[in-house]
Design goal:
- By secondary structure, the protein is of the alpha/beta class.
- It has 8 helices and 6 strands.
- The strands form 2 sheets. A 3-stranded antiparallel sheet has the order 1-6-5, with helices on one face.
Length: 205
């Protein structure tokens, strides 16, 4: 790992580093859509006006199954914001607002600004499934690797010491990954790191 990311390195060293993890395409949005729905939906750009798509996606399926979930989006102006990018918030990194089954089913309760994350953690109201996206300065895109690593330690490390993670009867896993590797154009969206931290302490194989 990069010497500029000591926290991520520590997670990888103490847990599981998935070495065969790849993005599916370039640029960002197709990778996010594929994560959320299993398909790029035919998207090949970071479009902000495409969709909403009518097919199934993870958010809609979780809701249909009665499983609580939230996407916490850093710097998103308001819950279920469907406009284009705003400040350091990038819509292309928020796949859930591209799908009708989320937009038409309590979107404002599920897709929220990241500022809600600390509140939910403190109140013991974190949902079963959590999706977190840093803003463009903190995701190592416009900012530095050091900045992104420090953000992760400051904002996500507390989750690993919270009862949501440590005392989860069903077990909990944290996956830290990225959407694409911009310098790798030979393997779909590129070879990207993925670290898996399990609440049980087991090292998955």
């Amino acid at each position: 790992g990069s010497s500029a990311a000591p926290y991520i390195n520590s997670l990888a060293n103490a847990n599981v580093l998935a070495t065969n993890w790849f993005g599916v395409s370039h640029p960002s949005l197709p990778n996010y859509l594929a994560f959320d729905s299993g398909s790029t939906q035919g998207v090949t750009t970071d479009c902000t006006t495409c969709g909403p798509f009518g097919g199934a996606d993870l958010g809609g399926q979780l809701s249909a199954a009665g499983i609580s979930w939230k996407a916490y989006e850093e710097s998103m102006p308001s819950a279920c914001y469907t406009g284009g990018s705003s400040g350091e918030y990038a819509k292309k990194h928020n796949p859930f607002v591209y799908f009708s089954d989320v937009l038409n089913n309590g979107c404002s309760s599920h897709v929220v600004p990241f500022s809600q994350f600390a509140t939910d953690m403190a109140n013991g109201t974190l949902p079963t499934f959590i999706f977190v996206t840093p803003n463009l300065l903190d995701d190592m895109h416009d900012g530095t690797v050091q900045q992104g690593d420090a953000w992760l330690k400051a904002n996500i490390d507390p989750l690993l010491h919270n009862p949501w993670f440590t005392s989860n009867a069903a077990g909990a896993d944290l996956i830290v990954t990225m959407d694409e590797h911009e310098a790798d154009n030979t393997n779909g969206g590129g070879h990207v790191p993925a670290v898996v931290v399990s609440s049980s302490g087991r090292r998955l194989t």
